[in-house]
Specification:
alpha/beta; Immunoglobulin-like; eight-stranded parallel sheet; four-stranded antiparallel sheet; 12 helices; 26 strands; Glyco_hydro_31_TIM; glycosidase; Glyco_hydro_31_C; hydrolase; Gal_mutarotase_sf_dom
């Protein structure tokens, strides 16, 4: 053994333990490693959690297939019904039965796999689920959340990882985004279009093209020459601007921000100690080491009004590509043998990378306002605890009915795992939705926490008034009804902020109806708080939807299901205990006088 170790520790890196994946070589300076644990959940055969996967809410038996993978990746137009990792990871399992809820939190940020297997049906045995965690690196750190009920599990998890940040009210309104709005005149035209068509909204977004050559914290001098004036124009209507800020920095020795980051030691290094260079939107780029406290503090300072020229207090932030995405890298991400602050290899910290950028951005906006203004930051990548920093979304989805349908269990899985401020791109990011799909998607998204329309630059423009008056009227009605419900949503977020209880209590329906076993497999309808039952239409040509009515013995008479007529011009929810008054207004500011209660 000693001879082998001597051999491995020679200076010749070709002698190091290594693995080859296609054209990529992963050098393991510390040798191979893994940690794992096997657990049996006695009496439980319904298990949930482990986002992010484009799959159903209840986790599948992995006995005859792939395990669930937790490894943050940039996956464009991701496959459905897949256990492969997507943009974020939360290693939390929640198991439930009528008399008990239990949580398992596997605190590990390296590449992780999870298997769960219930007993074979033909075997005479008590219900149980066997769980097997396996991570590439790290230590065994497994926390058991004893409940005994779902609300207690959510609270216990929030006490460990943090409670949901209370968003500013405008963040719960409607957001309009596109890659990309062309220039300041285009932004103002879209803004005026919402007014002209009597459609309320709160935030308009700018993607990467607003910058000077993909240099974040800059503005294109031709297309966005007066960004502060643009923000002041929006602010006169109580509207906000959101801009993108990715974690890669363009390699440009003539750019002061790049030089500042380089000279300050803020970049990740490769295994040979040189600044790591990869490729992303700006071309050759280096990646900020957000695991380093000084780097997070420096990045936070970049959002100050004095440093971020052209910014105002009404500018907010979107963190994208922070898995991190590295074009032409292994699985389009950073090599695992890259080195972070303190000598930690990237393999140890991979799933935390986006979380740390989210944290630095969040702190930057708090510092910018002196603590007087609640931040809004959207992040594509996330980890356990991201809920205390802002919102996330489901990434690069596709304009199809299947993606609309899968968005519901994806958001419910996030919600049961503590990430409650979540949404999916309305209409699908990739490809063009037909008018019926677009309206149905607006109807679904209006009943979800984060409500944003977004589209790829290769798609046709899809502002709500571009599809004819009938579609415009339907979308107008949906968005206005969202604004009617804002006091209710805001109250639910305050509850999540103080108690950990998610607004989407469909996580699943058993959160509100924990003893009803018929709810345990439902993932196409959900409760919003304890009062509204949502069952979005996710099939083309549907004029009615079959709705399961839980709690029939309490409020509703039998039968336990109902056939609801569903018109594309109307947003349908079932009210259990609440009456929603008709509302009006063009932004969330007009809703602030309404009572925040239900």
């Amino acid at each position: 053994m000693s001879l082998n170790w001597t051999f491995l520790l020679q200076d010749d890196t070709s002698s190091l333990w290594k693995e080859t994946f296609r054209e990529f070589v992963d050098f393991k300076a510390n040798g191979p490693s893994s940690v794992g644990v096997d657990l049996r959940l006695h009496g439980f055969d319904h298990v949930y959690g482990l986002p992010e996967h484009a799959d159903r809410l209840q986790l599948r038996d992995t006995r005859d297939g792939e395990p669930y993978r937790l490894y943050n990746l940039d996956v464009f137009a991701y496959k459905l019904s897949s256990r492969l990792g997507l943009y974020g990871s939360v290693p939390l399992l929640v198991s439930h039965r009528p008399d008990r809820t239990l949580g398992l939190f596997w605190l590990n940020a390296s590449e992780t796999f999870d298997d769960q297997t219930p007993p074979v049906k033909r075997m005479r045995t008590q219900p149980h689920t066997d769980v097997h965690w396996l991570s590439e690196s790290g230590v065994i750190d497994c926390l058991v959340l004893l409940g005994p009920g779902p609300q207690q599990v959510f609270s216990q998890y929030a006490q460990i990882t943090g409670f949901q940040a209370l968003p500013p009210l405008f963040a719960l309104g409607y957001h309009q985004c596109r890659w990309n709005y062309d220039d300041e005149a285009d932004v103002k035209a879209v803004d005026a279009g919402f007014d002209r068509h009597d459609i309320p909204y709160d935030v308009i977004w700018l993607d990467i093209e607003h910058t000077n050559g993909k240099r974040y914290f800059t503005w294109d001098p031709v297309h966005f020459p007066e960004p502060a004036a643009l923000q002041r124009h929006l602010d006169t209507k109580n509207r906000k601007l959101v801009v993108i800020s990715d974690p890669h920095i363009k390699v440009d020795p003539d750019w002061s921000l790049y030089c500042e980051a380089r000279d300050g030691g803020h970049f990740i290094r490769d295994r040979q100690g040189q600044i790591f260079k990869g490729v992303c939107w700006p071309g050759e780029s280096s990646y900020l080491d957000f695991s380093r406290p000084d780097t997070r503090a420096w990045y936070s300072s970049c959002f100050s009004l004095s440093k971020y020229k052209g910014s105002t207090p009404s500018l907010f932030v979107w963190n994208d590509m922070n898995e991190p995405s590295v074009f032409y890298g292994p699985e389009q991400t950073m090599p695992k043998d890259a080195v972070h602050y303190g000598g930690w290899e990237h393999r140890e910290l991979h799933n935390l990378y986006g979380f740390y950028q989210h944290m630095a951005t969040f702190e930057g906006l708090i510092t910018r306002s002196g603590g007087s203004q609640r931040p809004f930051v959207l992040s594509r990548s996330f980890f356990a605890g991201s809920q205390r920093l802002g919102a996330v979304w489901t990434g690069d989805n596709v304009a199809s009915w299947k993606y609309l349908k899968i968005s519901i269990p994806m958001l419910l899985s996030l919600s049961v795992s503590g990430i409650v401020f979540c949404g999916a791109d309305v209409g699908g990011f990739v490809e063009d939705p037909d008018p019926e799909l677009l309206v149905r998607w607006y109807q679904a998204a209006a009943l979800q926490p984060f409500f944003r329309g977004h589209a790829h630059k290769a798609t046709k423009r899809r502002e709500p008034w571009l599809f004819g008056e009938q579609v415009t009227a339907a979308i107008r009605s949906v968005i206005k009804q969202r604004y009617c419900l804002l006091p209710f949503w805001y109250t639910l977020f305050h509850q999540a902020h103080t108690s950990g209880l998610p607004p989407l209590r469909s996580v699943p329906l058993w959160v509100e109806f924990p003893k009803e076993e018929d709810t345990f497999t439902v993932d196409d309808q959900y409760m919003i708080g304890g009062a509204l039952l949502a069952c979005p239409v996710t099939e083309p040509g549907a004029s009615e939807v079959q709705v399961f009515l839980p709690g029939c013995g309490e409020v509703n008479p039998p039968p336990a299901t109902a056939l609801i007529q569903s018109n594309v011009s109307r947003l349908d929810v079932i009210l259990k205990l609440v009456v929603v008054d008709e509302g009006h207004g063009y932004s969330t500011v007009t809703c602030e006088i309404l009572p925040l209660c239900y």
